[in-house]
Amino acid sequence: MSRTGDSGEVVARWDGDWRATVTAGPFTFHVDEPEADGGTFTGPMPTEYFLASVASCYALAIAWAARRQGVDLPDLAVGAIGEYEGPRYSGIRLKITSGLPPAELEPLLKAASRVCYVSNTLAQPPTIDISVVEG
């Protein structure tokens, strides 16, 4: 399940004000800020997409671990809450709920933590290389 090499490119194109249109493969989605912050509230904030990537990746990782271990996993949900500290999150809390009893759900978390790309990336942050290219 692990990969090497570059990922596909995700491109955000500024649409004016606090809006952007993002293309990821064949998918397009919109990013904006709330009206109270100067946006038009036509899409989730970038930080909400960030938390969504953590929650959804971890949910899929738990489902993967359950399948591998032959565990029937009813109604899984993973919530992500970020703790603001200036212009960053100082912490992220994941809240996992399921109809599966906690004693059966908790053993899946170790395997899920090994394969969740997003939480693994946050645990060992990558370098960010910023460059300007001619367009």
Overview of the molecule:
There is one protein chain. Helix content is 33%, strand content 26%. The radius of gyration is 18 Å and the shape is globular. Helix 1 crosses helix 2. It has two domains: 36 residues; 79 residues, K homology (KH) domain (GMP Synthetase, Chain A, domain 3, 2-Layer Sandwich), CATH 3.30.300.20. A hairpin with a 4-residue loop joins strand 4 and strand 5. The protein is of the alpha+beta class and 135 residues long.
What order do the helices and strands come in, and which of them pair?
Blueprint: E1 10-16, E2 19-24, E3 27-31, H1 46-68, E4 77-84, E5 89-97, H2 102-115, H3 117-123
Antiparallel strand pairs: 1-2, 2-3, 4-5
Q: What is the helical fraction, as a range of percent? A: 25-40%
The ordered string of helix (H) and strand (E) elements is EEEHEEHH
Task: Please list the strands of the largest sheet in the order they lie side by side.
Answer: 1-2-3
Separation of termini? Answer: 35 Å
Give me the Rg, rounded: 18 Å
**Quaternary organisation of the protein chains:** single chain
At the first level of CATH, the class of the largest domain is: Alpha Beta
Provide the number of structural domains.
2
Count the beta strands.
5
The description of the largest β-sheet is: 3 strands, antiparallel
Write down the overall mean pLDDT.
95
Residues in β-strands, percent? 25-35%
CATH 2nd-level architecture of the largest domain: 2-Layer Sandwich
Count of helical regions: 3
CATH topology of the largest domain: GMP Synthetase, Chain A, domain 3
